[in-house]
Amino acid sequence: MISDALGVPARVLTAARAHRGLVTLCVTVTTSYGVLFYAFPVLSPAIAADTGWTLTTVTALFSASQVVAGLGSVAVGRWLHRRGPRPVMTAAALVAVPSLAVLASAGDLWLFGAAWLAAGAAMSGLFYPPAFAALTHWYEQGRVRALTALTLVAGLASTVFAPLTAALEQAWGWRGAYLVLAAVLALVVVPLHAFALPPAWSAPVAHGGSGAPGAAVRAVVRGRAFWALTASLALGSLTVYAVVVNLVPLLAARGLDAATAAWALGLGGVGQVLGRLVYAPLERRSAPVPRAVAVLGACAATTLLLALVPGPWAVLMAVAVLAGMARGVLTLLKATAVADRWGTGGYAAISGLMHLPLMLAVALAPWIGAALAGVLGGYPAAFAVLGALAAVGAATALASGPRPRPPPIPPGRGRR
């Protein structure tokens, strides 16, 4: 690792305040993902049926919100770096609530799309990336345990919110479901971000040593390893998020009813939790490159299983759990890959640059999955292509290890 070259000293809160921040983020990130992400695959068929808009169009607008979230991550990262997580994450929650209210009442496709774009701006301040940055900042060497704790809890977002959303839709339709979910954001996420997160970063840090952190970050970003890692994680992210959003339509094509398909999506959340329990021992026993290859290979294999296994429903449920496990491990791999290779000193700068293409891959994933199904004649064929893309990502990860530095030239051995 080159943490000394990147060279930003530890910046930590007291343990009690850091733990309070972790508990707060466990609740708010779980709720945010459940409301803003996992509710959509459950409600999208009902939205299309009620409005007459095609499922591909509805999914494309949801994908557009993810694009906005990716683009917004740059501004969010800068604001968070200057002020800490409380202001940016509170503001994001305040934007999300009216966005969902407008979404629920929209009778026009353009207004529906505009509401999703506003929700996407909110997502950039509510999802994993700002939370990961905060925890890495607060915990430094204990970051893996903190990140694992957050993702273990947030991995249950689909388990809690997919069945809940299905029940709300059955009772009040998709519009009523989104109104209730907006109220959940207003009553849970807004006050917790405003009052329970630590108010600011600790004292500003002066860069120590004679190195130039900016130059070291630029050297990393120009290297083959950075781009190989970015490409491999982008392909894996595209695959797993396309699977999440398109799993319900796939299972419906396999003959499952909407409620059972929603439960399968929820069980995928249980799989995420199980997968994240595996990550800590996996990290201790494997080097960064083989670990990345193994995780992306698991994403490819489980996606191909979903493409190839037609049933029965119990087997489909089991495969959904396995796919969730792979997705859960991938989340922690993305959270730790930068620090594993280049240390924590330049984590925010390097991961911020890497995050934009990853978020764009996540953003396009729902639409790509639906579009592939339309072009290829069904969701099984689309999932087969997605599995192949993850396999390419696993192969690309082989080149993601930083090259060792050459040994210093002994005195008198330089060029004459």
UniProtKB/TrEMBL annotation:
<feature type="transmembrane region" description="Helical">
    <location>
        <begin position="381"/>
        <end position="399"/>
    </location>
</feature>
<dbReference type="InterPro" id="IPR020846">
    <property type="entry name" value="MFS_dom"/>
</dbReference>
<feature type="transmembrane region" description="Helical">
    <location>
        <begin position="315"/>
        <end position="333"/>
    </location>
</feature>
<protein>
    <submittedName>
        <fullName>MFS transporter</fullName>
    </submittedName>
</protein>
<feature type="domain" description="Major facilitator superfamily (MFS) profile">
    <location>
        <begin position="1"/>
        <end position="405"/>
    </location>
</feature>
<feature type="transmembrane region" description="Helical">
    <location>
        <begin position="88"/>
        <end position="107"/>
    </location>
</feature>
<feature type="transmembrane region" description="Helical">
    <location>
        <begin position="21"/>
        <end position="40"/>
    </location>
</feature>
<feature type="transmembrane region" description="Helical">
    <location>
        <begin position="260"/>
        <end position="279"/>
    </location>
</feature>
<keyword id="KW-0812">Transmembrane</keyword>
<feature type="transmembrane region" description="Helical">
    <location>
        <begin position="113"/>
        <end position="135"/>
    </location>
</feature>
<keyword id="KW-0472">Membrane</keyword>
<dbReference type="InterPro" id="IPR036259">
    <property type="entry name" value="MFS_trans_sf"/>
</dbReference>
<dbReference type="GO" id="GO:0022857">
    <property type="term" value="F:transmembrane transporter activity"/>
</dbReference>
<feature type="transmembrane region" description="Helical">
    <location>
        <begin position="178"/>
        <end position="197"/>
    </location>
</feature>
<dbReference type="InterPro" id="IPR011701">
    <property type="entry name" value="MFS"/>
</dbReference>
<dbReference type="Pfam" id="PF07690">
    <property type="entry name" value="MFS_1"/>
</dbReference>
<dbReference type="InterPro" id="IPR052983">
    <property type="entry name" value="MFS_Riboflavin_Transporter"/>
</dbReference>
<keyword id="KW-0813">Transport</keyword>
<feature type="transmembrane region" description="Helical">
    <location>
        <begin position="291"/>
        <end position="309"/>
    </location>
</feature>
<dbReference type="GO" id="GO:0005886">
    <property type="term" value="C:plasma membrane"/>
</dbReference>
<feature type="transmembrane region" description="Helical">
    <location>
        <begin position="52"/>
        <end position="76"/>
    </location>
</feature>
<keyword id="KW-1133">Transmembrane helix</keyword>
<feature type="transmembrane region" description="Helical">
    <location>
        <begin position="345"/>
        <end position="369"/>
    </location>
</feature>
<feature type="transmembrane region" description="Helical">
    <location>
        <begin position="226"/>
        <end position="248"/>
    </location>
</feature>
<feature type="transmembrane region" description="Helical">
    <location>
        <begin position="147"/>
        <end position="166"/>
    </location>
</feature>
